[in-house]
């Protein structure tokens, strides 16, 4: 009934939190101890893939050291990607934060001002050098007009900066300055190198400590790309990073029990628990985690928890079990957000479906898209028979081979309660097809991310490497990769490169050529001779080539190349 429809759609924001929902607090305390007691300049690297909780761990570290005699600086180099001189911006951000400690000490203020002037001078020089390539101006006069004069005894460059910065830090009224660096793995290669160089060459002095939160593999790739072809070996990139990071720390791996508790806490928090109640639950889960007593919110929690929340958390982990998603907090959160949208749409459409049936179908769509598509597209009169055949296999002989086209990993999900053969799911499947063409918008796996990154890269050999990666993916991952590339062709910063990748994907994704042809043809106004040459060389695209050759709105060079 309409009166029973959901009126509020609640989703989980992807924001870092210092509340320890995943049992990271012991790691935060250990890192805090390292960076507040080490005598020499220290750099800690927090390593983990995207979505594993690095930003939240940084927030916990900040909490652990906030009461100590330590000044914390937080920077995000991702925000500086478009700056001419990222090193200057990073160093300037640190100096700007240190100005908070100057208080009434004019000598410290003067030192910071002097160092900031030298940063400004260097940034102005870099900007002018870049602009002088295309504009008519006198760089020397502009430097003289727009940058402060160097202080007597100090050059207007970064020469001697490290020594002067070390003297400044010693004068500050704190025992330690800790710089927390987040999202380094999201930066362009040039920004990654500039950030690391600013730390190593200018800021790494006694009483300074740094915590870098990043996926180390992606940072190494950025280092290799940023240093040029002569330094592209993985060994060189690893050694370069190791010289900067003295203390590598891997984020704890989130087990199924961890994620179940995490999700239950999120759901409970969304149920409007106050801070004190949430803290009690977190401490309770932490104690049971140390005791190895799973589920971590089982037993007798000190705060009432709705059974529906605990059941949904358990179902989510069981449904995603065996996939990469279950060990990644961000992916779990995104999956639950996508599920919330679908659940809301079902309620608004007044479709009667038990929550456990809806959830099982949604997990099936997310994890086994081909199988879900097969079920959804089957005629209603044959659908029940198809589902019963699948469930008979799943609940029968454990050694029986799966039906053709069905992945063996689907057995556990298909055999779990509730079974679907006796349920009326026709109205839901019709809605699912209309809403998303049976696709769920969730974070791609690392394998898909790596393939897309190569396909859209301008580095030598990257496209070929990306095509090889795609060939090794399963069907669902290949479709996710195609979606990402086509999206980049529509709205990305470099649509021409994405269009080249889409054309090249026709060969490893021959089974998706019916999707590729209209997608490529729809971008015909952006085709150049290079695109045309690729199209002409691929037999599966011959019908598209013939159609484009007769399109008189296209550039004549493009049409001639297609012949």
Account of the 3D structure:
The chain is mostly helical and 563 residues long. It contains 26 helices and five strands. The protein has helices at 25-37, 54-65, 86-98, 106-131, 139-146, 161-171, 189-203, 216-226, 234-244, 256-270, 275-291, 307-320, 329-348, 355-367, 369-377, 380-395, 410-415, 426-436, 446-455, 462-471, 475-491, 495-504, 513-521, 529-536, 542-549, 556-561, and strands at residues 42-47, 70-75, 176-181, 208-214, 247-250. The chain has a five-stranded parallel β-sheet with strand order 2-3-4-1-5, with helices on both faces. The protein starts with 24 loop residues before the first helix and ends with a helix. 35% of the residues are buried.
Q: What's the overall geometry?
A: flat
Radius of gyration: 28 Å
Q: Structural class, from secondary structure content?
A: mainly alpha
How much strand content do the residues show? 5-15%
In the predicted model, the low-confidence regions spanning at least 5 consecutive residues are 1-7, 127-151, 437-443
């Amino acid at each position: 009934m309409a009166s029973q429809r959901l009126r509020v759609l609640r989703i989980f924001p992807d924001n870092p939190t210092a509340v320890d929902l995943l049992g990271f607090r012991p790691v935060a305390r250990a890192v805090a101890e390292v960076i507040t007691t080490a005598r020499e300049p220290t750099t800690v690297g927090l390593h983990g893939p995207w979505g594993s909780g690095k930003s939240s761990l940084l927030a916990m570290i900040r909490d652990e050291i906030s009461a100590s005699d330590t000044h914390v600086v937080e920077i995000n180099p991702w925000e500086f990607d478009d700056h001419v001189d990222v090193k200057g911006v990073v160093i300037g951000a640190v100096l700007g934060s240190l100005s908070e400690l100057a208080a009434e000490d004019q000598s410290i203020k003067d030192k910071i001002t002097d160092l900031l002037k030298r940063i400004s001078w260097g940034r102005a020089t870099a900007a002018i050098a870049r602009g002088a390539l295309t504009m008519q101006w006198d760089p020397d006069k502009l430097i003289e007009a727009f940058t402060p004069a160097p202080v007597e005894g100090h050059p207007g460059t970064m020469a001697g900066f490290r020594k002067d910065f070390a003297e400044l830090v010693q004068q500050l009224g704190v025992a330690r300055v800790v710089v927390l660096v987040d999202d380094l793995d999201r930066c362009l290669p040039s920004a990654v190198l500039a950030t690391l160089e600013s730390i190593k060459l200018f800021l790494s002095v006694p009483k300074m400590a740094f915590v870098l939160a990043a996926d180390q593999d992606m940072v190494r790739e950025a280092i290799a790309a940023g240093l040029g072809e002569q330094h592209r070996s993985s060994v060189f990139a690893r050694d370069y990073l190791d010289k900067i990071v003295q203390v590598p720390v891997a984020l704890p791996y989130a087990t199924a029990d961890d994620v179940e508790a995490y999700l239950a806490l999120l759901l409970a928090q969304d149920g409007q628990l106050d801070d004190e109640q949430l803290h009690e639950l977190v401490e309770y889960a932490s104690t049971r985690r140390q005791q190895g007593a799973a589920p971590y919110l089982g037993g007798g929690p000190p705060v009432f928890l709705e059974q529906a929340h605990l059941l949904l958390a358990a179902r989510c982990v069981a449904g995603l079990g065996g996939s990469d998603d279950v060990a990644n907090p961000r992916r779990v959160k995104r999956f639950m957000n996508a599920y919330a949208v679908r659940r809301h749409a079902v309620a608004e459409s007044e479709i009667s479906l038990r929550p456990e049936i809806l959830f099982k179908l949604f997990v099936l769509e997310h994890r086994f898209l081909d199988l879900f598509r097969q079920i959804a597209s089957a005629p209603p009169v044959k659908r029940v028979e198809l589902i019963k055949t699948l469930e008979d296999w799943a609940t029968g002989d454990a050694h029986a081979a799966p039906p053709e086209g069905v992945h063996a990993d689907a057995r556990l999900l298909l055999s779990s309660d509730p079974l679907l053969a006796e349920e009326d799911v026709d109205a839901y499947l019709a809605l699912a097809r209309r809403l998303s063409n049976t696709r769920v918008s969730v974070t791609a796996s690392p394998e898909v991310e790596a393939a897309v990154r190569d396909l859209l890269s301008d580095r030598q050999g990257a496209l070929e490497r990306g095509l090889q990666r795609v060939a090794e993916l399963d069907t669902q991952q290949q479709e996710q990769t195609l979606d990402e590339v086509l999206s980049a062709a529509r709205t990305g910063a470099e649509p021409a490169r994405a269009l080249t990748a889409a054309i090249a994907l026709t060969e490893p994704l021959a089974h998706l050529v019916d999707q590729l042809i209209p997608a490529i043809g729809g971008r015909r106004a952006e085709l150049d001779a290079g695109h045309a040459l690729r199209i002409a060389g691929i037999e599966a695209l011959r019908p598209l080539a013939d159609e484009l050759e007769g399109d008189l709105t296209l550039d004549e060079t493009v049409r001639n190349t297609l012949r």
